UniProtKB/TrEMBL annotation:
Gene3D superfamilies: Phosphoglycerate mutase-like. SUPFAM superfamilies: Phosphoglycerate mutase-like (SSF53254). It catalyses: a phosphate monoester + H2O = an alcohol + phosphate. Keywords: Glycoprotein, Hydrolase, Membrane, Signal, Transmembrane, Transmembrane helix. GO terms for biological process: lysosome organization; negative regulation of ERBB4 signaling pathway; negative regulation of neuron projection development; negative regulation of protein processing; odontogenesis; regulation of neuronal synaptic plasticity. It comes from Panthera leo. This is acid phosphatase.
Amino acid sequence: MAGPGFWGLPAGPILLLLLPQALPEGPLVFVAVVFRHGDRAPLASYPTDPHKEAITVLWPRGLGQLTGEGVRQQLELGRFLRNRYEAFLSPEYRREEVYVRSTDFDRTLESAQANLAGLFPEAAPGRPEAAWRPIPVHTVPVTEDKLLRFPTRSCPRYHELLREATEAAEYQTALEGWTDFLTHLENYTGLSLVGEPLRRAWKVLDTLMCQQAHGLPLPSWASPNVLRTLAQISALDIGAHVGPPRAAEKAQLTGGILLEAILANFSRVQRLGLPLKMVMYSAHDSTLLALQGALGLYDGHTPPYAACLGFEFRRHLGDPDEDAGNVTISLFYRNDSSGLPLPLNLPGCPGSCPLGRFRQLTAPARPPAHGVPCHGSREPATPAATVVPLLAGAVAVLAGLSMGLGLLAWRPGCLRAWGGPV
Ligand SMILES: *[C@@H]1O[C@H](CO)[C@@H](O)[C@H](O)[C@H]1NC(C)=O
Ligand SMILES: *[C@@H]1O[C@H](CO)[C@@H](O)[C@H](O)[C@H]1NC(C)=O
Ligand SMILES: *[C@@H]1O[C@H](CO)[C@@H](O)[C@H](O)[C@H]1NC(C)=O
Ligand SMILES: *[C@@H]1O[C@H](CO)[C@@H](O)[C@H](O)[C@H]1NC(C)=O
């Protein structure tokens, strides 16, 4: 018997015998991709920032805006998608085949457009003017975006869950260990940091990493050790937002909403026989982290710019069984443009997962049909009894592995700040 599982549910034995064999991949029927915007300017400066003046020179479009490098990264991602789905998508954009939605931020809207310029030849840069066509990108106002930007600020229940995480002994111990560090950092940055939300510390890291990525020398206090500690602080906070305790309940209020929307998209396509083949969501690292949390796949790594999580729905080859249905889902994660995307395994269902099983396993992390109340305390949802031991056992192993902050890979580039998509 393991300890509490990743979802905050009691862990049972891992019923490996129930796991199906990896299935051969059938033909694609539907794809959903969720990606982070490309390289951007830092979100903020800090009072003692020696490079304040340089901001307008290096990032003439302003704080938080997509850079030329960010545009290039998205073009590249679009070309990758074209290559991967060459045989699946029509050669040119068709509105009934592809639907693109972005958060209402300049950097994600621009990222979606740049991506589409890589995906569709008629939108490509350098296209002769007479043949050039832009591709539509849909959005909703930030305050109404329940799908890609989670209403955690205005959700008391989420705050309750977060409080439970931050009041836990391990969190408090880690935080106490960093009090001296944060006190020094206050002195260096002119920010008030001790006892404040940890995202303030992330913003310092974000600023430093963006400046470093653009060739500016860092102030002498910003040693590699300081940066590493800031990254660990950031991972602690992300873990509290998307990980245990009660990760599944948090997911119901965040990443599980998007997961549910993707599954609903596919159901609708099947039920109505729609010609829709692909939905694309242009969003933030917080979106990807929440989605990873909902899938039980957050492992301490922050998604880099233009990181892309893909859901590929395929026709199931062989006999459809009652439980599995006639469709499988496989997941990929592309966080490095120099290699092949990583295949991801849903805990408890490695390889391409029968849709029915995928639904069962992710049910605790998706909001129930009547929606999740943001107000008031309530008991955690009890998912179908057969699913719990399987999922919780499998993810307990993952949680044990991933909670070690040592796993955190330190990479240049800007980090995120929770509580505001970046
Ligand atoms: C803060 O900075 C001042 C001036 O640089 C220095 O005298 C003081 O010792 C510093 N305090 C801490 C806590 O580092
Ligand atoms: C897919 O989901 C999004 C978000 O819920 C929605 O706006 C869109 O209409 C859906 N498309 C289909 C075909 O279900
Ligand atoms: C799966 O079965 C459903 C219902 O029988 C059908 O509507 C759908 O087209 C099938 N999907 C595939 C990919 O074969
Ligand atoms: C990509 O993600 C995997 C899994 O989280 C991680 O092990 C790897 O270090 C990441 N690579 C990059 C370049 O971010």
